[in-house]
Amino acid sequence: MAENIRLEVVTPEKSVVSEEAQIVMAPGTLGEFGVLSGHTPFLTTLKTGALKYKDEGGRERFVFVSSGFAEALPDRVTVLAESAERRKDIDVQRAKAAAERAEKRLREQAKEADIDFIRAKAALLRAINRIQLAETR
Sorted alphabetically, which HAMAP family does this protein's record hold (predicted)? Predict the structure, then answer.
């Protein structure tokens, strides 16, 4: 059996995951990447999406991550994310409300020049990813 790797997912506020994993799959800005024990070291940026991993027992786990960085080393993966939460901790109602607010801002953008389009689009993307991840069980 292959060796496990250490997975650490942290945000500026808290540690979200700190456990052994068989494999880690993450949403890199240049595409999804996977890391197994013994991987060649690299550093990459992350996009908003779902980080997937198999825990020591082989159970598939999911974590929402919103941008940040990932460092892969032969024995560990460290993710520094702007925000992150385990799938079980996602508040779907809150995410749906955030999506509605962002969609409203984007509709109003055509009428008003002071709406921050990029910020509203990013908020909508985060909300959609949270909802999709939480509702796929």
Answer: ATP_synth_epsil_bac
- CA 51-56-60 angle, 5° bins: 40
Helix (H, G, I), strand (E, B) or coil at 92: helix
Measured between alpha carbons, how far is 12 from 22 in angstroms, rounded to an integer?
A: 26
Q: How far apart (Å, rounded) are the C-alpha atoms in residues 92 and 89?
A: 9
Same domain? For 17 and 48 the reply is: yes
CATH number of the domain within which 126 lies: 1.20.5.440
| Count of domains for the chain | 2
Task: Give phi and psi for 67, each to the nearest 5.
Answer: 45, 170
pTM of the complete model = 0.79
Q: What one-letter code names the amino acid at 29?
A: T
C-alpha span between 25 and 11 (Å, rounded): 18
State the amino acid at position 3 in one-letter form. E
- Tell me which residue range forms the domain holding 121: 90-135
The three-state secondary structure class of 43 is strand
Looking at residue 34, its amino acid is G
